[in-house]
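Q: Hi! New to this. If I give you a protein sequence and the SMILES for zinc ion, can you show me the bound structure?
A: Yes, paste them in.
Q: Okay, here:
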Amino acid sequence: MLRRWDSPTPFVGGLVEHECPRCHRAVELPFGSLCRACRDEIERKAARWANAIALASTVVLAIYVTLRVPPEPIARRVGVVAVVVWFVLANMVVRRTVRELMK
Ligand SMILES: [Zn+2]
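A: Thanks. Here is the predicted structure of the protein with zinc ion bound:
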């Protein structure tokens, strides 16, 4: 819904919080955002979870590809590419999910 031009409510961009909503540390922040320390902590935890889960699932996929893909060179190369792509995508998805859940 669009805001009326003469609305008494200020724009959200003009609102300022005086403490972090997560750690309650006194800082000046735009409305709805977290302080630098909280963002760094969330990013560190998300990266740790993403690396662990992506690595574990990639190992399982690599074992499956090793056992099931025929021993032809092209099939092996496609399997290796699939494993690498799986690691990258799993890492991105888990990182994003953990980041959103921890906010
Ligand atoms: Zn904070």
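A: The first strand starts at residue 16 and ends at 19. Let me know if you'd like me to explain how to read the tokens.
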